[in-house]
């Protein structure tokens, strides 16, 4: 069997026979791979480490030679060119594939962990044995190499811990004289180490040399002050006072062989479900913390199952903490009373460990120091349940490696995570599958299997919250004749949280949520209620500021209170959302604590925020658009401050669902002005940028109905034209033409010349848009509409709206000209004029669309080079408009196919298909059909 040793010079043997590992670089490779603990080390890193960043010219070849030599030494029985099984190649590097007991450093760490779980009389011989494995500085001559420093320091610390545990074990088995000698040697080796000093003083006290013990403590205090300018740790101060006051219970706590082993874990839930990832996360934390105290902070909203998770893990791993398990409910969010003071929690722990009630120190620091002293060398598990804040638990955390702490809290305890490196474990509600399994375990598979649809409905109403599921499961279990469908109907019909209230149940969702709510500052509590009046799925700080009328910085502080209390969650950076049941609870509070006027004002500010933000974003996306007068915002509303086109598009993408929700509120309230203006504000985004045409048509129809009921002619015409354009973009040309015809009629009737040009141009677009290249018949039919629109435009005041409409009219006229003698030259001249005009008013998307038409015309006329140039320039100007990009790429597919360049055609086809993928609106599907046609042979 191969044995590798690094606890001293790097050596190896096979069945006791030494192995020649070669020269320094070859031995260093073994050390580097041992330090990696079986993980792969890249060849580049090996080269970097071996030559300290200055590799020779043929370093890779040298490395391969070293590896080959080592393989022959470590695997002498391996067949020539046979696969290596010890020093193996993985991807771009190498690793040692060895069992734990084949490397002395790995075996040492494994044995040290084993010793911690043994009684003192069994642990001491094991510890003395493994300490004899050390033959000098870790990694020998390579100790000071960059790759070795961190691992060597870690192993040295584990060696010191083993020496300390051996001394503690000697005290426990009644051999204080030997413990004293070993402790004094440890102090000589590590004069500034706190635990070494503590053990030396403790063992001197144990053999009756109190004055020498006090002198040891004073000498250490002076050394630490001279070296670091610091006072000794509280544990040493407590020990010093205990010796001075002859408090022998402190000495007995360290030397008694039969210590009290508390087992205070409450009963774990029989129906515990899911949480596999979180349980694994806790286990990994405990396993990775051999030299420290792992502290996990399990956080989440009320009723999400924090205590259940902590107890589940604690029961599963209690054997790993043979000195006992301590549990305490800190009452941080209890329904009544104040949180349990840290002083009382410390008293409870000390008395549980055998300290007489009247011997417990008075001050919190002294109690905490005594607890840490008593825990030194022990392996104990602490469950600190329902903590209010970090201050409540800070003094309850042990200081010795071997212990572990699970803390549950509705608060995030960020200070503990930041300053004490606690590990956060955030719990969310169950996913539907786990929620269904939980119900099945509570009420039986026969009932849930018989009514799967009802189970799904119950899970949905409960929002996956374990507490809500538990209340419903209890109702099902106590009413065996009720069908699950009846229970689901009852939950649906009750509305809000009433369906989870039951006689004798003190921990339903409403009551549990209230324990968090009542701790909030008044402003944060008001924000919590008012956020429930926001109709969309999530909010930003800017939105919340508009809802409240307060400054964003102030609102951010209030939001932090809500996040800290797990009453709202930051599900994406800067975006916050409710759990459904918490939203229902907040809505209840808004209904009871705020009057109608206050609630109406909050809703109005929310609508104003989205309307004015959308108007500002649209102005950046399409500055050429004609302006409209918008309802003034309510006081305190601060629209989003977007400054670039990209920011505006990102804002629309992020807020789209909220915009539709706000629009739905206006529709439900029959609020015509809001509906009309919202539709106007989002029209360019939904029709041109993202082609959300189903939504566009649905909401435009509702807005038009309201405009007709209000008899507002201007908005009737405007919405009619928008609706016609949505149908056109949706590829429903017949519907579109009918609505444009109605738009022409309305505009002529009202004398609105600008709207009439739009309606006429829409008619021309529907006719010419039937084909990629308009036929002669279509171009001649569309021409009168375009000509009339152009004549009207020239009579209107000169502005961007007029310039834009003139350009559109000229495009239709260009298609008409293309069918006349020498028409190609004339049409191309018109298209060139349009592109220049649109770029002059910075309408890049319009210019990109015109260049597409130019490309279609050139391709149709056989001018393939001109077509390619037009398509490429269209791509440059298209920006984020995917449909324009896809169409330009499709044109390039055809052009390259016409040139016989199949490779180029395929490249452009793949690029176009990548854009079209997952986009199902008709425009994209039409392009897909065109691409498919281009891929077929003529």
Automatic annotation (TrEMBL):
Q: Would I find Transcription regulation among this entry's keywords?
A: yes
Q: Which UniProt keywords apply?
A: DNA-binding, Transcription, Transcription regulation
Q: Name one GO molecular function term.
A: ADP binding
Recorded hits in PROSITE patterns, A to Z, give: OMPR_PHOB (PS51755)
Q: Where is the OmpR/PhoB-type domain?
A: 1-98
Q: Which CDD domains match?
A: BTAD (cd15831)
Q: Name the InterPro entries on file.
A: AfsR-DnrI-RedD_regulator, BTAD, OmpR/PhoB-type_DNA-bd, P-loop_NTPase, Sig_transdc_resp-reg_C-effctor, TPR-like_helical_dom_sf, WH-like_DNA-bd_sf, WH_DNA-bd_sf
DNA-binding region, residue range(s) = 1-98
Task: Tell me the Gene Ontology biological-process terms attached to this UniProt entry.
Answer: phosphorelay signal transduction system; regulation of DNA-templated transcription
Q: Name one Pfam family in it.
A: BTAD
The record's Gene3D superfamilies line, in alphabetical order, gives: P-loop containing nucleotide triphosphate hydrolases, Tetratricopeptide repeat domain, Winged helix-like DNA-binding domain superfamily/Winged helix DNA-binding domain
Q: Which family does it belong to?
A: Belongs to the AfsR/DnrI/RedD regulatory family.
- The name of this protein is DNA-binding transcriptional activator of the SARP family
Natural source organism: Actinoplanes philippinensis
């Amino acid at each position: 069997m191969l044995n590798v040793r690094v606890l001293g010079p790097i050596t190896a043997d096979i069945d006791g026979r030494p192995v020649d590992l070669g020269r320094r670089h070859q031995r260093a490779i073994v050390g580097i791979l041992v330090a990696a603990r079986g993980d792969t080390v890249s060849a580049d890193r090996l080269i970097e480490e071996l030559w300290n960043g200055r590799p020779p010219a043929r370093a890779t070849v040298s490395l391969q030679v070293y590896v080959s030599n080592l393989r022959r030494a470590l695997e002498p029985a391996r067949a020539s060119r046979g696969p290596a099984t010890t020093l193996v190649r993985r991807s771009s590097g190498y690793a040692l594939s060895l069992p734990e007991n084949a490397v002395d450093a790995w075996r040492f760490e494994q044995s040290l962990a084993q010793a911690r779980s043994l009684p003192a009389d069994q642990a001491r011989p094991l510890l003395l044995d493994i300490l004899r494995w050390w033959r000098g500085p870790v990694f020998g001559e390579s100790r000071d190499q960059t790759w070795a420093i961190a691992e060597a320091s870690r192993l040295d610390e584990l060696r010191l811990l083993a020496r300390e545990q051996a001394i503690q074990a000697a005290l426990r088995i009644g051999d204080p004289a030997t413990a004293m000698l070993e402790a004094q040697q440890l102090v000589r080796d590590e004069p500034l180490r706190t635990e070494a000093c503590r053990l030396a003083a403790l063992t001197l006290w144990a053999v009756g040399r109190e004055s020498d013990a006090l002198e040891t403590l004073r000498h250490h205090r002076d050394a630490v002050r001279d070296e670091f300018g610091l006072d000794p740790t509280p544990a040493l101060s407590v020990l010093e006072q205990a010796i001075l006051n002859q408090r022998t219970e402190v000495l007995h706590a360290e030397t008694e062989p039969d210590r009290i082993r508390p087992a205070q874990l409450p009963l774990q839930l029989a129906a515990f479900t899911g949480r596999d990832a979180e349980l694994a996360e806790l286990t990994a934390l405990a396993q990775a913390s051999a030299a420290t105290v792992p502290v996990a902070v399990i956080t989440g909203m009320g009723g999400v199952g924090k205590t259940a998770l902590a107890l589940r893990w604690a029961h599963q791993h209690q054997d790993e903490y043979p000195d006992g398990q301590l549990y305490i409910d800190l009452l941080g969010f209890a329904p009544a009373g104040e949180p349990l003071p840290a002083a009382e929690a410390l008293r409870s722990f000390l008395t549980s460990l055998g300290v007489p009630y009247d011997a417990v120190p008075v001050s919190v620091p002294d109690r905490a120091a005594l607890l840490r002293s008593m825990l030194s060398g022990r392996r104990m598990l602490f469950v600190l349940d329902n903590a209010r804040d970090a201050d409540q638990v800070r003094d309850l955390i042990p200081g010795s490696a071997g212990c572990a702490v699970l803390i549950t809290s509705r608060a995030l305890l960020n200070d503990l995570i930041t300053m004490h490196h606690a590990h956060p474990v955030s719990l969310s509600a169950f996913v539907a599958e786990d929620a269904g399994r939980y119900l099945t375990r509570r009420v039986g598979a026969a009932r849930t299997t018989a009514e799967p649809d009802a189970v799904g409905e119950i899970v949905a109403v409960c929002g996956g919250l374990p507490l809500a599921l538990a209340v419903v499961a209890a109702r099902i279990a106590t009413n065996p004749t009720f069908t699950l469908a009846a229970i689901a109907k009852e939950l649906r019909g009750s509305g809000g949280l009433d369906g989870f209230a039951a006689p004798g149940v003190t921990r339903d969702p409403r009551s549990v949520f209230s324990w968090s709510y009542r701790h909030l500052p008044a402003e944060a509590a008001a924000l919590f209620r008012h956020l429930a009046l926001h109709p969309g799925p999530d909010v930003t700080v800017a939105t919340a500021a508009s809802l409240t009328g307060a400054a964003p910085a102030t609102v951010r502080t209030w939001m932090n209170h809500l996040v800290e209390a797990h009453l709202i969650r930051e599900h994406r950076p800067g975006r916050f959302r409710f759990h459904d049941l918490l939203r229902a609870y907040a809505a209840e509070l808004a209904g009871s604590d705020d009057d109608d006027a206050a609630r109406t004002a909050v809703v109005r500010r929310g609508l104003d925020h989205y309307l004015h933000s959308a108007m500002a974003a649209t102005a950046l996306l399409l500055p050429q658009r004609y302006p409209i007068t918008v309802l003034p915002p309510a006081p305190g509303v601060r629209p989003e401050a977007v400054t670039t086109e990209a920011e505006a598009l990102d804002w629309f993408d992020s807020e789209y669902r909220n915009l539709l929700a706000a629009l739905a509120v206006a529709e439900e309230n029959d609020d015509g002005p809001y509906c009309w203006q919202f539709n106007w504000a989002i029209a360019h985004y939904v029709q041109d940028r993202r082609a959300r045409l189903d939504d566009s048509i649905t909401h435009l129809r509702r807005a038009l109905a309201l405009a007709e009921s209000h008899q507002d002619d201007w908005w009737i015409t405007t919405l009619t034209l928008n609706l016609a354009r949505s149908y056109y973009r949706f590829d429903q040309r017949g519907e579109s033409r009918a609505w444009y015809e109605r738009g022409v009629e309305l505009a002529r009737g009202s004398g609105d010349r600008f709207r009439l040009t739009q309606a006429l141009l829409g008619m021309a677009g529907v006719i010419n848009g039937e084909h990629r290249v308009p036929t002669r018949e279509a171009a001649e039919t569309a021409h009168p509409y375009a000509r009339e629109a152009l004549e009207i435009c020239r009579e209107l005041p000169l502005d961007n709206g007029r310039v834009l409409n003139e350009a559109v009219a000229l495009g239709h006229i260009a298609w008409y000209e293309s069918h006349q003698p020498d028409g190609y030259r004339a049409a191309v001249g018109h298209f060139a004029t349009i592109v220049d005009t649109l770029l002059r008013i910075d309408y890049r998307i319009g210019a990109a669309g015109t260049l597409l038409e130019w490309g279609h015309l050139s391709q149709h006329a056989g001018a393939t080079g001109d077509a390619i140039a037009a398509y490429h320039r269209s791509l440059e100007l298209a920006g984020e408009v995917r449909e324009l990009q896809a169409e330009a790429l499709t044109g390039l597919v055809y052009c390259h196919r016409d040139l016989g360049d199949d490779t180029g055609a395929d490249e452009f086809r793949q690029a176009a298909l990548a854009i079209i993928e997952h986009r199902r609106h008709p425009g994209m599907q039409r392009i897909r059909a065109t691409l498919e046609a281009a891929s077929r042979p003529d």
